[in-house]
Amino acid sequence: MSAALIDGKQIAEQINTENAAEVARLKRDRGLTPGLAVILVGDNPASAAYVASKDKMCARLGMHSEKIALPSATAQAGLLAMIDRLNQQENIHGILVQSPTPKQISEEAVFAAIAPSKDVDGFHPLNVGKVALGDPSGFVPCTPAGVQELLARSGVAVEGAHVVVLGRSRIVGRPVSLILSQKARNANATVTVAHSRSKGLAEICRSADILIAAIGVARFVKPEMVREGAVVIDVGINRVEDPTAPKGYRLVGDVDFDAVKEKAGLLTPVPGGVGPMTIAMLMRNTIRAATMRCGLA
Amino acid sequence: MSAALIDGKQIAEQINTENAAEVARLKRDRGLTPGLAVILVGDNPASAAYVASKDKMCARLGMHSEKIALPSATAQAGLLAMIDRLNQQENIHGILVQSPTPKQISEEAVFAAIAPSKDVDGFHPLNVGKVALGDPSGFVPCTPAGVQELLARSGVAVEGAHVVVLGRSRIVGRPVSLILSQKARNANATVTVAHSRSKGLAEICRSADILIAAIGVARFVKPEMVREGAVVIDVGINRVEDPTAPKGYRLVGDVDFDAVKEKAGLLTPVPGGVGPMTIAMLMRNTIRAATMRCGLA
Fold first, then answer.
1. Complex ipTM value
2. Which chain B residues are within 8 Å of A160, Cβ to Cβ?
């Protein structure tokens, strides 16, 4: 048996179409153009590529966007002053600082400086708390929201199922475990958070109806960690050397795809699985921030 | 085999002795007396008893306390104005509004109105977020903090163990699952959050090394849900009718104590298990709020 694949690109495309329609409606009916500011500190090429793709998606959806590039030597105070300016700026509804930041800048300080109402990444502690409490006024981080949407639109029954989340990061593992265990639609799962210190990890993973790999280690999930027919969502994006690839490396997930696809029932590829969902959910969060700002949601 | 019992009363007593010593030290060395304000709205007798015992514990530890009783018809705005006054009041370091509040008052609004730095119950969304992120500047809710302390002082190895939490309330289930899965001391467990909608609940519970029952149903946990020798922590406090008892009712936990004690390795009784820990941790949170306020922690 070979797993069916979840086509994240196609599902993200549906959401982007919905997003574009919503932007058009807001412009036409309310004279409101959602606006996103993305700040890039330094010149990490991967970060620059992410920022460019967010900017491009804003343009495609008819949104306003501002791309702010700061030198890698930028002091934390300078970045916080810039954030504060954007917090005040009327035509900006979402603010995002691309991770990782140079080491003189504390990401915690950055996350806490963004106005919670413009925190479309969902990293401000107040939004983390709201998400933990199931308060819908909070912003759910984009990748976890994308995982939930991917499951829902693939017809996976999450309610009552056993979800095992591998990893407990603030960006993925922790929030995805919180949202899937809420008493809510497309949620209500039994959720286990496992990690590098878990004993009996293979057995725990095998007990999952839905396994979400977000541990940041290339090809970590092997077939013996997957129950026959389980749903496997691969959040990892890891570079591995590959002399035969044009760039000298390849992107692989946290799941040993070729081996696991013989055992899983449903599986996301990397790339083309969770990845495209992240930007789609960022756009959705920004649109929602704009409507909330204007008292429309 | 019969389970050994965890004596929560004795462990809470140790902590209260430590708390009293810390209060004495702060008064002597810093001229600082930690102060707690407890607000009771209405005349629920159980709530009145809880408030009285908190007040009494403050007196015993040498802390300042204010007990504020408001009529049950108090409007939400009136309560929020009172909270705002206490937020400003210099000699009050912790503020607590006794649950439940009358139905004209939104508990969410109350929790969000208390200054996060005085939120010794740990229910403000900002503190919930900090706890979810493992940020030590947040206040951990008292009962979950008590459960963690009870495990630590009973010599239970939590790291790497599989903890199953039955229940996902904001007061117990959710925060205890968050703190025990953090990368931290007395934590680092694999944590599963299960609840009334979980499929295969008995099997999930049986996979626990440590089972924490916080589901609010009298004697819900039966022996077939407990692995031989497991640690079982009973957070429930339920009234059940008992004509032979002096008051006509008895307090029982979420665990079928008499049956489960033949199977568990270590078990908390109700009363005398988790209950006494809650006040001890409230006092500890208030002392910490006072020292943080004065830049000492």
1. 0.95
2. 197-199
